[in-house]
Amino acid sequence: MRLIWLITWIPAFMSPTQKPQLPGTRFQSEFTVRPDDIDLFQHVHASRYQDYLLAARFDQMERCYGFSMQAFIDKGLGWFVSEFQIHYHQQLGLGDQFTVTTWVESIRAATVIVKFEIHKKAPATKRCCHGHSNYVLINLANNRPTRIPAWAIEAYSI
Fold first, then answer.
1. I need a surface site. Which of 13, 58, 105, 131 has the fewest CB within 10 A?
2. Which CATH number is 117's domain given?
3. pLDDT band for position 23 (50/70/90)?
4. Measured distance CA(103)–CA(157) in Å, rounded
5. H or E stretch including 82?
6. What's the pTM?
7. Is residue 80 domain-resident?
């Protein structure tokens, strides 16, 4: 029953159908495919794309939003990945340089939905994949979902 409560609970400042209107500012992080990212078929293993997204988010949390993952941990909070969805278009291979672009799509109660795209940089910019990930804010003392504080909503609403 607690999961149903989490999904249906609405912060006091929102109506049941309202979501914060976010400008959806897009941020980029750059990476290069390393040898340990490659699978037996000589392209990036599917699991690495989620690693790339997480690495980009950690970078962007600190560099772009001004709140590192450590800042959340210091406040007794952490982010749990509750859903990850990806649509592949083109493979990445060894040595490929690429960008991971992310933006906050919505914030609601304890959940942030982050959309992303990964683009190969050369010889021409081509979209390799796109998708979204849902993150749930948890209280690290009890590992339970907790409402996203106003300071976090403000930071992520740029």
1. 13
2. 3.10.129.10
3. low
4. 10
5. strand 77-88
6. 0.83
7. yes
